[in-house]
Amino acid sequence: MSWAKSGVLTTVVDDFTNVGGSEEELVNLIQLIEKWDVNVNVDCCSEHVEIIFSALKNTINELGVKTRQGRSVTSDIIETWLDLLESGLKEAEWLRNKSVPTMEEYMTNGYISIGIGPIVLPALYFVGHDLSEEVVGSSELHELYSLMSTCGRLLNDIQGFKRDSAEGKLNALSLTMIHGNGVVTEEEAINEINSIIKNDGFSAHEVMQSVNAVTEEPIILSELRVKSPTYVGATSIKEKSRSPVLSSLHINHLGERRPNESLGVRFYHKRPQCN
Fold first, then answer.
1. Which of 8, 31, 107, 180 could form a disulfide with 268 if both were Cys (CB 3.0 to 4.6 A apart)?
2. With 0-12 CB in 10 A as exposed, 13-18 as middle and 19+ as buried, what is 47?
3. Lowest mean pLDDT among 120-134, 136-150, 234-248
4. Does 103 map to a domain?
């Protein structure tokens, strides 16, 4: 239930930030969620904002009640949505100002704007175990979320390169080419990004070894497996087997990482987890 509802809402919010809503409406929506207890008839600048805010608030409150964690987790869920909306606002500002961010700037924002956080992180509260604030705010869990989201963002940007270019939007692929001083081809940029995805997949597997195997690991690994074939447009078993994430998450029967594989360097910095 959590996964499905949050997935639908992230799609709605993504459409709102990218196409349907103005920057003024997005700022208004962020302010409403920050205040939380508002009068929608007075504080919403448009009917569109009122509908989305009401849907978000109702869903977040419902999830907060049903988690049965022995403590309120509503504020944690709100924070994941605020992170997503603020990252969408940053991308809107770049587009409006025709800014060209560095890869580090783009990925620091982009691994959040891909929208995996509001789907996966609240779902952790429904896997049957009480998660303390220490677990939810742990560096291991946040690192795993960051790695997964980075893979999702990079895969999405490869798949959506032509669409984004047609709309005048920059993404990881186009920025790799731009910051390559005009000598990096599209094919070379794709190969470079796929290498990062593969290395981050190995890193995710390493982090999984230090995360509780009964709670966080199955959900996050499942999301990685779902996102990878989808974003690269794989439709057959053969195509899915070539997915860089699935390849990097393949381990031997002892559960060990493949030998002689470096971890690589990622573009983003870790963002502190809100409690």
1. 107
2. exposed
3. 234-248
4. yes
